[in-house]
Amino acid sequence: MFTLPRLPYAADALEPHISAQTLALHHGKHHKGYVDTLNKLLADSALAGLSLDEVIKQTHGDPAHSTIFNNAAQSWNHDFFWKSMKPGGGGLPDGDLKVLIEHDIGDGEAFAEAFSAAAAAHFGSGWVWLVATDGVVGIVATHDADLPAVHGRFALLCCDLWEHAYYLDYNNRRAEYVAAFLDHLANWDFANANLTAAAAAMNEAEPITMEPNAAPAVVPAT
């Protein structure tokens, strides 16, 4: 049975950029709903007892298990999203990731423009991700519960584009919400740690895993 992971910070720690009310609803209702529904779906399933990673891998692309995939992937995506933010975060990428972004996408301003453009161009619900594949970093958007790992990419950082992630605080102003994520919340320490893990996996020629986790620059649809 899966349990709802705790937030890595207090509910009000991201204010004023994301309110405690939004986090209470998003984490305590939406994320919890995915976890609870997944547990119910798996109760009498042959998939019961598998890790979340394995549930996602084994149900992806299988119409008979689409509901299980959606709830498992959304559980994984949300946990990754919480870790993609931190109080006092944001600003320009740093560390090894800064070097790769500058090489594959452009300077900090070009990256922010590309990330924001991907979010603005994405129609409906989904996610925008900074990813890496074969040593190249890029930006991709995915619809609904879709996620990079099932397309052979390592996730480095993500921003939730579902309306429940921002509507209480920003109404329909998605661009303003994404700007706040980039300027004040993005957790570059987490992204750099995922880059290190991705590089280690590739160097060891291991299969891609779903762990907090590399993809062409910029914005191919998946």
Q: Could you please describe the fold and organization of this structure?
A:
The chain is mainly alpha-helical. Helices cover 47% and strands 10% of the residues. It contains eight helices and three strands, in the order αααααβββααα. The chain has helices spanning 20-42, 52-59, 66-83, 95-104, 108-121, 167-170, 174-185, 188-203, and strands at residues 126-133, 136-143, 154-160. The longest helix is centred in the first third of the chain and has 23 residues, at 20-42. The two termini are 30 Å apart.
Jot down its keywords:
222 residues; mainly alpha; Helix Hairpins; minor pseudopilin epsh fold; 2 domains; three-stranded antiparallel sheet; 3 strands; 47% helix; 10% strand; globular
What secondary-structure arrangement, pairings included, does this model have?
Layout: H1 20-42, H2 52-59, H3 66-83, H4 95-104, H5 108-121, E1 126-133, E2 136-143, E3 154-160, H6 167-170, H7 174-185, H8 188-203
Helix pairs in contact: 1-3, 2-3, 5-7
Short description:
47% of the residues lie in helices and 10% in strands. It is mainly α.
- The total of beta strands comes to 3
Morphology: globular
Model regions low in confidence, pLDDT < 50 over at least 5 residues = 205-222
Class derived from helix and strand content: mainly alpha
CATH class of the largest domain: Alpha Beta
From the alpha-carbon coordinates, what is the Rg to the nearest angstrom? 17 Å
CATH superfamily of the largest domain: Iron/manganese superoxide dismutase, C-terminal domain
Query: How helix-rich are the residues, as a percent range?
Result: 40-55%
Report the total helices.
8
Report strand order across the widest sheet: 2-1-3
**Strand-and-helix sequence, N→C?**
HHHHHEEEHHH
Tally of individual domains: 2
Beta-strand content bin:
5-15%
Assembly state of the chains shown:
single chain
